[in-house]
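Let us work through a complete example step by step.
Step 1: write down the sequence.
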Amino acid sequence: MGKIIQKRTDYISWDEYFMGVAKLASLRSKDPNSQVGACIVDQDNKILSMGYNGLPRGCSDDEFPWAREGNSLETKYAYVTHSELNAILNYRGGSLENCKIYVTLFPCNECAKAIIQSGIKTVIFGENKYDGTPSVEASKRLMNAAGVRYYQYQPTGKTLEINV
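Step 2: predict the structure and record it as tokens.
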């Protein structure tokens, strides 16, 4: 009789996989200060959509500002779409009801509204570097009121390397 082969035990978890996809998506961002990625997953752990913070389709990354301070029309804030909204808008398959979104940064209040309206029920976030700000506090209030669960991803410390 042949040797019994056991399955691998060092494979990554679903959370590691989807947060890894969100982090990989963030590397597409042209923003020199903040690179944020998002990955939307259905109840069967199938990836439905991804997004990153950047300018809307058809708007040149070279013609719009990336500054964080100054006249509001000369900063990125009037032009850049956040990763969560991009992921929601990129989805062309129908409903996102009861889905999860993995995002590398806690959602702002505007993205929280889009998450709620799209039917997403769980937010798994990486960093929360703006915790305590009005935007994050409003986001928490909105998600709590709408029954959207959110929790912080707990890094496992694994290092994964992808050569492209």
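Step 3: interpret the result. The radius of gyration is 18 Å.
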